[in-house]
């Protein structure tokens, strides 16, 4: 991923590769073509926000399932 002006830092830096993969999976699910070079700077805020929003929804869903003891 091109870093550009990235200022967000992961709580667990070792999860960087997994988070990038997760971002690509979510983008694909919602129909957004991921850039070959990993740079999302040419994408609209709406598209990037949609990716981030869906990532958060999926993480919250996973967490709620884990604490409730249910599976998919």
Write a concise keyword list for the protein shown above.
single chain, 72 residues, mainly alpha, 2 helices, globular
Structure, explained:
With 72 residues, this protein is an all-alpha fold. It has two helices and no strands. Helix 1 (16-29) crosses helix 2. It is globular, with a radius of gyration of 14 Å. 4% of the residues are buried. The model has no long low-confidence stretch (mean pLDDT 86).
What is the beta-strand fraction?
under 5%
The coarse silhouette is globular
From the helix content, strand content and strand pairing, which structural class follows? Answer: mainly alpha
Give the biggest sheet. none
Give the topology, please.
Layout: H1 16-29, H2 45-68
Helix pairs in contact: 1-2
Summarize the structure.
With 72 residues, the protein is an all-alpha fold. 53% of the residues lie in helices and 0% in strands.
């Amino acid at each position: 991923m091109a870093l550009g002006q990235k200022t967000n830092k992961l709580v667990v830096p070792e999860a960087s590769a997994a988070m990038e993969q997760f971002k690509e999976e979510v983008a694909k699910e919602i129909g957004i073509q991921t850039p070959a070079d990993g740079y999302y700077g040419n994408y609209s805020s709406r598209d990037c926000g949609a990716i981030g929003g869906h990532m958060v929804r999926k993480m919250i869903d996973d967490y709620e399932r884990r604490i409730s003891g249910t599976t998919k």
